[in-house]
Amino acid sequence: MSAGITDAVLAGIVNISADAIVSVDQAQKIIFFNEGAEKIFCYSANEILGEPLEKLIPMRFRETHSAQVIGFGKSSTRARKMGERRQISGIRKNGEEFPAEAAISHVDVNGEKIYSVILRDVTDRRKADEAQRFLARAGEILVSSIGAEQTLRTVALLAVPQLADACIVHSYHDDAFQGVAVAHIDLLRGKLIERSRVEHPIDYSGDHPIARGMQNRAPLVLSSANPADEASLSRSSDIFADTPTAAIILPLLAREHLLGVIGFYRKKGTYGEDDLFLTTEIARRAAIALDNARLHEQVKTGVQARDDMIGI
């Protein structure tokens, strides 16, 4: 195979790599930017070639990064593998910062130092790790909850602020409303909402999102970006000063019994698939914990009744 063909094949492989591959010259100006880099940083090669490397680095790291690159070029180390360095950060064209891992190398070409970096966006992996840690912690907290009322409050508090700006849990038992727990970024407003929902329960046969969650026993995802959802979101206008921009309503189901409904609400922004996964897992764990708490209370009541009868 000729050198020309080999170079063409290698160039093709490098260009289609899902990882970002970026090369800079001795002045740290970008001289190569593959398709993976275009997708990750959201710049086209035409936009970024000739620009300083610091354009891809968050502002707070720029002052020290250039010196670190020069120091690496002077060292006897020719390359550092991915994972050898601490996790770094990149910045996309729209200003969004993202976590990354990188491998870096330097070579001398015609007396000039050329630096190359292979960078991998680890946003999804970090989200997955954080989600697993959050769910593990949530499971431990819920398992330690004693009593149905405490479990309701624990569930609501777990969601704010990581998953929602407000979380409301409606308890349902023996075909009747049994109580409500509210967690809110505004503590005072949360207490007002809780009192209002207790004194004026939602009509579970109506068209309120909570009612629909109980009727359908299926997830309900609402967004102000969808005109069809505006009326449903407006029915929850008591939660914030303005109507929520997004909501996820989930039934709490255990052993095929409806135990209640949990609602997650955002003041701004939307909910995506990752959010739906997390909230669904929280709802599943919450239903199991609530069911166990109720069973525990039933056992306690039964034991107390037996003791009272023996005493008589």
List the helices and strands and how they pair.
Elements (H helix, E strand, L loop, with lengths): L2 H14 L3 E5 L5 E4 L1 H7 L3 H4 L10 H16 L4 E2 L7 E4 L5 E13 L2 E10 L1 H21 L4 H12 L6 E8 L2 E9 L2 H13 L9 H8 L3 E4 L6 H5 L11 E9 L2 E10 L6 H39 L1
Antiparallel strand pairs: 1-2, 1-6, 3-5, 4-5, 5-6, 7-8, 7-11, 9-10, 10-11
Helix pairs in contact: 5-10, 6-10
Description:
Strands 1, 2, 3, 4, 5 and 6 form a six-stranded antiparallel β-sheet that branches. A five-stranded antiparallel β-sheet has the order 8-7-11-10-9, sandwiched between helices. The protein is built from ten helices and eleven strands. By secondary structure, it is α+β, with helices and mostly antiparallel strands. The chain starts with a helix and ends with a helix.
Which descriptors apply to this entry?
alpha+beta, 312 residues, disordered N terminus, 5-stranded antiparallel beta sheet, 11 strands, single chain, 6-stranded antiparallel beta sheet, elongated, 10 helices
Summarize the structure.
It is built from ten helices and eleven strands.
* Secondary-structure class: alpha+beta
Number of strands: 11
Residue windows where pLDDT falls under 50 for at least 5 positions: 1-5
Major sheet: 6 strands, antiparallel
Molecular shape: elongated
Strand percentage: 25-35%
What's the average pLDDT?
Answer: 85
Radius of gyration: 28 Å
**Cα separation of the termini:** 99 Å
- How many helices? The count is 10
User: What is the helix content?
Assistant: 40-55%
Element order, helices and strands? HEEHHHEEEEHHEEHHEHEEH
